Amino acid sequence: MKYQALSGLLALTLLAGCSSSEHVVPDIPPSQLYSEAKVSLQSGNWTNAIEKLEAMDSRYPFGAYSKQVQLDLIYAYYKSDQLAMSLATIDRFMRLNPTHDKIDWVLYMRGLTNIAQDTNFMQDLFNIDRSDRDPEPAKEAFADFKKLLERYPNSPYAKDAHQRLLALKNRLANYDLATADFYLRREAWIAAIKRCQELQKTFPDTEAARQSLQIQLKAYQQLGLTEAVNRTKTLIQLNPIE
Fold first, then answer.
1. pLDDT band for position 130 (50/70/90)?
2. Which of 36, 107, 204, 213 is 20 to 30 A from residue 19's alpha carbon, by CA?
3. Domains and CATH numbers, the chain
4. How far apart are CA 114 and CA 87, in angstroms?
């Protein structure tokens, strides 16, 4: 009897799941569908906007609205935190439309999306230092903004890209510093020195580069390299920590 009751409950659950399937976008003219999607975008209803834009993208891939639909999808995916979808749409658009007049915006959005992937909500909420987390999205964002500034220096997004580039530089430098400190604490002296030298070469004008000299000094001292120790002490005097 219990088994029958359980089976009946399972059947009801499955039916409920089927009845709440994904909403089907009505087959209406593309101009009307796009107009509705724009209203959703403007009101911040990202889910509804994405639903309609995806329908347009699949139904009319070569239509009059196709490029603008993809641009709108990039933004809607980003705003709704669907970052992987945003990046995929960005890469597709850049591959198919390399000379589009909004390619600078697309590149800017790629940088923003990679930054969003690098952001840790709990870290921001509690101000927790996580310099040691995987920097790959930050590296991608750094490359995106650098490319934007090199290719489109007069873009309206160039100023903000420059500011974000500076922040990313510090983020990446702090990661190298955390890695060098990790090697030092593990008594991997040579690895610590190499990472410090790489940091100083790649990001010489950062606070992390100056701090790395202290790690480099300790590693040289452990190795008994007197000349290198004295040289590093001189560098520390010339580059005081602010």
1. low
2. 36
3. 28-95 (1.25.40)
4. 8
